[in-house]
Amino acid sequence: MGVRGLMPLLARFAPKCITMPLPEELAGWTVAVDSNIFVQRFFKGTDGGVDSLRHLRGMRNLGRHVRALGVTPIFVFDGKLRALGKEVELSRRNMDHLRVLSDLEREQARAERISTMNDINMQLLDAPAAQTSTDRSTAVDWLQGQVETLGGKEKPRHVTINWRIEQLEADVCRLLLFQLGATRVLEGAFDTCVDSTQALASLQKYHMERLATLRRRTEPLTPDMIADCVELMAALGFATHVVDGSRESEGVCAHLCRHGVADAVCSEDLDVVVYGARLLRGFYSAGGAAAAMRLVDFQVACTELGLSHRAFVDLCILCGTDFASTIEKVGPITALRLVHEFGSIERILDSGKFRPRPGFHFQIARDAFMADAGSLPFSSKKEVADCSPPADPAAVDVLLPPGAEDRGALDARDPFARGLGLP
């Protein structure tokens, strides 16, 4: 999503365009919110169970956060049609879906292993650990195999949730082996949990959270769910707009900013900067924290890089966007050098020195980013304030019945920080 490698490039060559505003500095701002990104985050996020209202609760909490900061929002949502030319993004989403399905199969296999561990633990509770039997021998062999398979994996450079849960599995298997008398450990080695039933309960909890998250990620976010979010934000008294035709919400948000209707766009999508607007990233995270906000200023970026808007768009296309593939052997730094040297993508290609990859439809991408604003839902900040509907608590209660409180794991929480304390 957005432009590959753009933030590191700006941090190196245009550092003044990136600032870190404090939450209290946003008071009085009007911001255009790229709402679908937040809805997706809340809908797909980690949760302790299946919760059909999570996306609505997330949007309600976002609304509370906005009010607490003294910010006037415009919640802009994507319509049913999407912009043409985003084959790269669609391909990426398909690949992400396949990865989720693969992870789901992995968790289903883990469920079978946890079931076997539970069976072994129940046998331990029913019979002395020193009892010699064929079942015990089989259990020991199986547990040792799991320790070798799961616990013997090298720690990856980027630690994943799956790797951490596998280490917990290996720890539980070691604990069961110890209780079966098949291994010896030093006294005090189990500093967190020495009870196999408790250890299995912890493992089961993390597994179920992961399984629920993956199952949720395979579920589609339907137009009706988006419509409910639009209705909720209006019922909370906020200005809303659903993008019509084939425009993208981030593009409409960017044009609202460029025309002075908004001070910035709240999104994680770097396309906002390519459209020519100020982007506010990290505006809202789990728990409502906004300490990691970054404000990316398009005008300052162009000034520091010495580029026009069109040249900046070409730079971003060369880096890689959702609209087009890229040129072989051209990364962000090389792209910046080439734009300075040749001035445009056409001249870069005309030099005959570079070969575009299949799908390098740079003109489609350029047209999308350089398109006119078209009809905007609001013409001024005053109109946004005047057109914000009155709050409707009764409508809010219909969408979010009283008592629908937050529950489950927070997206930012790391439940695997300590592990089970096993060797």
TrEMBL record:
Domain XPG N-terminal residue range list: 1-100
Gene3D superfamilies according to UniProt: 5' to 3' exonuclease, C-terminal subdomain, 5'-nuclease
Cofactor(s) needed for function: Mg(2+)
One GO MF term: 5'-flap endonuclease activity
One GO BP annotation of this record: DNA repair
Keywords: Endonuclease, Hydrolase, Magnesium, Metal-binding, Nuclease
Ranges where the XPG-I domain occurs: 236-307
Pfam families named in the record: XPG_I (PF00867), XPG_N (PF00752)
Key word Cell cycle present: no
Name used for this protein in its record: PIN domain-like protein
Species whose genome carries this gene: Coemansia guatemalensis
